[in-house]
Structures are given as C-alpha cells and as structure tokens.
# Entry
Amino acid sequence: MTFLPKPKLHHPDLQKNALGYTRRDYEGPVSTLCAGCGHDSISAAIVRACFELDIAPHRVAKLSGIGCSSKTPTYFLGASHGFNSVHGRMPSVATGANLANRDLIYLGVSGDGDSASIGLGQFAHAMRRGVNMVYIVENNGVYGLTKGQFSATADKGAKSKRGVVNTDEPIDLVGLALQLGATFVARSFSGDKAQLVPLIEAALKHQGAAFIDCLSPCVAFNNHDGSTKSFDFVREHNEAVNALDVMLPREEITADYAPGTVELVTQHDGSVLRLRKLHVDYDVHDRVAALTYMQERHAAGEIVTGLLYVDPEPRDLHAALKTCATPLNALGDTALVPGSAALDKLNATLR
Amino acid sequence: MLQQVDRVEGLQRVNDFVVKFANVNGSGSASANALFAKAVLRMGIPATPRNIFPSNIQGLPTWYEVRVSEKGYLGARGGGVDLMVQMNPQTWDQDIADIAPGGYLFYDNTKVLPPSKFRRDIVVIGVPLTEMTNAAYKSTRERQLFKNIVGLGALSMLLDMDPAAVEQLLAEQFKGRDKLIAANVQALHMGRDWVTANLEAPIGLRLKRADAVGDRIFVEGNSAAALGAVYGGATVCAWYPITPSSSLAEAFTRWCQRFRVDKETGTNKFAIVQAEDELASIGMVIGAAWNGARAFTATSGPGISLMQEFIGLAYFAEIPAVIFDVQRAGPSTGMPTRTQQTDILSCAYASHGDTKHVLLFPEDPYECFEFGALAFDLADRLQTPIFVMLELEVGMNERLCRPFQWDDSRKLDRGKVMTAEELQAGKKFGRYLDVDGDGIPYRTLPGTHPTKGAFFTRGTSKDAMARYSEEGHDYQENMERLLKKHHTARTLVPPAVIRTAPEGAKYGAIYYGTTSPAMFEADEILADQGITLDLCRVRGFPFGDEVRDFITAHDHVFVVEQNRDGQLRSLLVNELEIDPKRLVKVVHYDGTPITARFIADAIARRLQSTPLPSLREVVS
# Structure
C-alpha cells in the first residue's frame, strides 16, 4: 500500500517551543485512516501535547499493537522510534522497552479490540506492574480493520451498523485500571480537544502507569443511531468531573477561582495539575470512591470523563525492581561482565 | 537384625556401579543424596547423578540415581541398579524389581517385612534407621532429616567411602554453624558405627580413592546457562515458571544478586520480571532488545508454542532475543519432568510464514555457560532470536564438566548499531539496507539522535528504508536478504565437533546435546564388537559445511536423537538436501536419558541383522 510523506514546508513564522521545535517537528506522514476518524484527532492532540511540553521528539518511543488505533503512531512524532508489535501485546513490548531504558518517554497506543479483547491480560498486568508509560486506548467499540464487528467495550444493547444488538456486558478499562493500581486514570473524548490535550500532557508528566481511555468514534462502522460510541451519543452523555490545565514548573501558578473549586496537584517532576472541579465532591485521590462513582454513572447511561484518579507520587516498576539510575542498555562490559577472576573463584566452589 | 533371605554372592565392583535412591518427594532426602554424589567426586571418582521425579511437590516417589564410573562415563548406563537404597514403601515392588541380579538392597528394616517382599538373587541389607533416629532425636523434623544422614553414614561404611570426604562437605555446607556441623557428623557416625557393629562391611561394591576427576566442576546446566547470561551481558530477564526451565531464571536471579548489585548504591544492574505468561515474557524480551538491552527468556516446549507469533515478529522485524528452551517430553503437557530433544523443529521453524532460526545445542554445563554467553553476541550480531536448546537432563541435573573459562580480553559484540556520531557525520541509514553484503542491516536504538535514524519497527512488510510496503519486490528482496543473513549465521554458530577413526569409518553417527556421553561410551562398546564409527556432534543450526561433508563422506550416518520422529534428521534432510536413505534414525524417547547400551544395541542390530546397502554408487 502506501507511505505518504508529508511535504516539509515550514512557514518561517511557525511558533517554536522552548527547544526550538515547531509543531511540524512532531507530526508524521499523512494518516491513511478514514476521513473524520476520531483517532486522527487523538494523534493531533498527542502532537500538540508533546509540542507544548517541550519534549524532544526523539526521546519518545511510541508503541502499539494491531488495529486502526495501532496504526496511528506512524502518523505522529515522525522523529521518534516506533514499534507496531503484535495484536494485544503492546504492553509487554512497552514493559521490556521501558526496562531497557528508563530515560525515554513511552507512549503506548492501543484500541479496544487490542486492549480489551485479545490483549486484556497484558493491559491488566502492565497496569498492576506500574510501568512508567502513557497508555492510550482509542476506544470506538468496534473492529474497524475487519469491518465493524463488536469489540469487548461495546455496550450491552448497542446496535451495530448492520443492526445486530450486542448481548455481552462491556469491559470497562477505566474500572480495571483503577482496580489494578494504575496511578493516573483518565477518560476523554477525541471530539473534545480542550479536555484531551491537557490530559495527555498530564499523563506524559506522570512518572508511573498513566491510562487514558479515549472514546474515539469510528466514522465508518460505529457512528450511527443506536451506537453508544457515536459522536452524537458521546457528546450528549459526556459528563466531565473536572477540567485540567498542566503547568510546567517554570510557569507562574495563579489560582483565581472560588475556594473549593480548584485543586492544585504537584506531580513528582514539579509540574502542577490545575484541576477546575466541575463536580465539587469528586476526589481525584480516592480510588475506591472513583470506582463507585464510575459504576453509578455508567448505570445511569452517562460517560464520566476528565482526570479520574491520580497519585502524584507513584512508584513505578523500576522502583519495585530497584534498577540502577543508568539505563540498562547503557551499561558497559565492565558493569556487566564479572570477569575471569570471579569465575575462577566460582569454579573452586563447584568441586 | 540382618534380614538376609538367602546367602547370595553379591556383585564385586570397584568404582563402577549404579546406586539408586528411592525417596519420597519433600522428605529432605535431596541434600543427603547430593552429599553422597559429591563425596564420591571428592574421592576423585567421576559420578553422575540424575533426579528422576514426578510432576509433584510433596509426597510422591522420587529417585536419585548415581552412576559411579572411574572410567568417566557420564551418560546413563541403563540396565539394572547395582545398589538400591530403598526409603519409600510406596515404590517397593518396582524398586526391588529394578535391582540387577547379584545387586544389593539397602533398606530401613525397622518394620519387618515378609520374605515374599524380597528377591532371592539379591543381597539384602537392613538397617533400622527409623528405630535409631527415633531413639536419638525428639522432633519429627530432626528425625526425618537426620535419618537421611544416618543412612548416608551406614552406606559410606558399606561402600568403604572415606568419611573425611563427607565430613569436609558438611563443614563447607554449614560453614559458620558449628553446632549443625557437629550434629550432622554425629549422625553420620551413628550410621557408620551401627554397620561396624552389626554387619560385614564393606560389601562387594566399593569406592576407592582415584584421580579421575581432575579440575572439573560439578554444576547444573540451568545454573551454568544463567551464569552464561550474566557473562553475556544480559540485563533483562522476563520469564514464566515452567518445568524444567524455572531454575534457570531463578539461578539468574541468584547470580545477579551476587555479581550485578551496585556496591555503592545497592541498586540493580539487571531487571527480572516474572511475567503473566510466555507471550508477555517474549514480548518483554523483544521490547528490551529493541531498545538495546540484552534480554532473554527461559522456557520449555509449551512456552515455545505460546511464543510463536512473537518469534516471527522478532525474525521479520529483526530484533535480537535469546530463548533458553529447556526441553521436556511433549507434545502438549507431555511428561513435564522427563527429558527429550523434542523442540528442534518447532524452534528451527518457529512461527507462521517462511522462517528459519538459529539454534545452539550444548552438551554439558560448560557449554550451557559458553553458549549462554555466546547467544547474546549472536543475537545482537544477527539481530534475530537465538535458541539455546537445553534438555531437562542437563538443565536439572548436576553434571561433571570442564571448569568455566572467560577471556578477559573478550568484548561483548553489540553488532551493527549506528551511533549518534555516525548519524551526525552523515552516514547513510536505512534500517533494512544490506550495506555489507552479509544480509545483516544496521539498526539504531530509540532516542539516539534528534533528527536522524528514527524508523518504524513493524511486523508488516516494508522496504529497505523501513517504510510500509506491500510491493511484491520489496517483500521478496527482504525475504531473500533474511535468507542471506541466515546463511551468514552458519559461519557464526559453533562448528560441529568431528572425531574420525584413524583409518576412516564406513559409517558415521551424528548426535547432539546430552546424547554426547552416552554416544562416546557406545562408540567404545561398538569398537569392542569391531564396529568403527566416525562421530559428528552438531552444536549449532544452521549447519556448517563440515556437517554436509561428514555426511557425504560416509555410506550411512546414524542420527542419534531423543525424540520419536528424528527431528534433527528431518532438519538435515531438509536443509542440506541429503538423500534420506543415507541418514538412519536411532531414537530413544521414553523420557529417560538415552544410554550407551541402547545406542550400541540399536546400531549393532541394525548393522548385523539388516546390513545397510552401500549407497556410494547410488549417490555418486
């Protein structure tokens, strides 16, 4: 098929970030997804988040599984290494990559088929291990590449484009992530850039397992009446618990909101999440309450979005494994090979 | 006390016999048994122990068979057992039947058994171990543990074993815990003294100090392979528990704790993850190796089956990976605690589509170490999965072998990795370009350079610049290059070890892995019968020219294997395009290790009963 390079015509006045990169430097080749696909909006949000956070593009490793969503890493961050692995197995590849070099940023992109069906196990274990990565599921409730079969996140009673009604209970990845100890959990909507970009930024700044379930309607197979993952349905039933701004340490933090309506969460790297509460009672630090709340609202037919849970001081897999500060892939022979003297000593104990 | 049913002339052998301990799993017998084997070695006599155990943790029968052989035969001997140390009533009948005529039975006679439970053609030695330990110790645990040592003491007296060898081992084992040493030595002598007072010792089987061990070491293959991984620079291990490979990953943990913890910070220069399954294990290995760390997994046949898809990805996307496959009897769950060489084909051609992988076949712990380290260089050099094909027989048994060696001038070969400096200097980078003509492209690691060298890794087809492509010629060129790379691998894997008879033999034998000691011994048995063989021990796949030359130089070649279908033979036929008639299958696959007697019998019978027609004319 096709590889479509994007013409590199930079406008001389394009805005540059602190590292001197323009937005263009974070883009990739032209997307081959359907026109209007929600996934492309997420790619655009990733581009913007990385640009705004002044992340050097080559310091990001982007990984995915198989499916429409998993194709998207080709279409953003063209200067980053990417890895389109096997179906449902991105989490293990990302875990291994992360173990090898703790200094890069790991961005995993997956879909609802990739993570909730074939890859449910790997999704769960990456969350419970606390792999320091951003894990985005572009959730549209169907298999796009194979033309519209239900996925495991499709709601019970939802109708497919061909008129089939789904009879299985949906898997809620947000609920699972919360239960399994993810230290940053959010849900968003590809059609809400204002909400999505800061969430991705906050996740990129988070030093643990950060999960974003992003509803991303499939214009080809799941955007009709009777679908609970269509643009119209998600817009109508979207209930955000908060609105978020991410402020880098260098920015001046102002809080000109009424008391109780704004919470400032300082993350481990000094960045600050400014949460404007849309639900005064919602506490982003209460895992159990978050779970209950999600279930209640789901039962009422609503889709709760926003930052749902955050632990500003997460312990990641490297902390658990006590790995050294130097990335494992940078250790040289001297650090790795004990040498002949150690071997002679050892031989003596094996006689 | 002596329950001698009949007066039997027992076998008379010095430093050449087989002792089998029949125990209950989980009764603490393992350490006493190992002590016996090690004490024999300390007396300068080669001994080869084998654990024979069920897929179970506690309560079921387990055996420990030790072959004592001053001549240095390390393979299983086969045939009846010369001395059965029977400590498990559950397997009494079977164990009694296993004793060779004239052999000896050593058992705990605290409970008197009817004469019908014994054989008339064996020497029966009863020692009241339970009675003795019940009198001497209070706690059940002590009684149980010391019973093994009292038994060892009695045995040492009967076999004329030097008690100093055992005492020295106890002192080393419990170093710093003097009370424990004293208690064990006391138990040892309790057994010895009882034998002196009540029986005629030594019996016809005797141990006599010799000098046949040399500087060899005694170690398990899994442990050696794990040490090889440390020396090979592995930093990431992702694994899922499966018999018989679990002890490899566990040994890696121990070696890392010893050699890879930073003294100043206490942090680890390694990462070991027990994954949720074999798919995740190999996925983590591939992710880590893609990112420049040396990574491996350890598994067995069922794990290999589960990893197939990922192995194909690593082959096609060209990512290094090291897989230690400690083989057990298949198919399916098969016999998880029995040995075989049964994953040759499933590894050589792992995954869907056209694939060929690199395999290494270590014969003993020395080579487990050597190939374990080498595998990481090969994986980086060839950017492909490397399989180290252990077998339960070598993985889970301690085996005498050459001492480990390391050349300090040896550097880890990281293969073709393009650096930021090279990229900056303008060196052309195309991930799948065959720049050097050896089929091996250059790779870059994530995060190397701000603007150059990034590429997209994928399991879909691509062009030489790593761009997605469904063009037939792009796909085919890539597949041809992969074949060329596999061809290059022939020159990098360890060559076959060939031993030709001085006058040149008409027949040859090809073998690999743990068949080695049995093959050597079989060769001597056959030589005594006037049958001369040339020998070729295959150590790697793809096969080098020397393997093809060896086959074509002989009328017929026996391919000796431990699987039903002759898997290596199939691989030889397929890859070297050998006329199958030239390769005569000799297979042993009941789950027990192949023996010299079996090999010699099979080959002799084949040559004597149905002489093989000469193929020279037909072929040439």
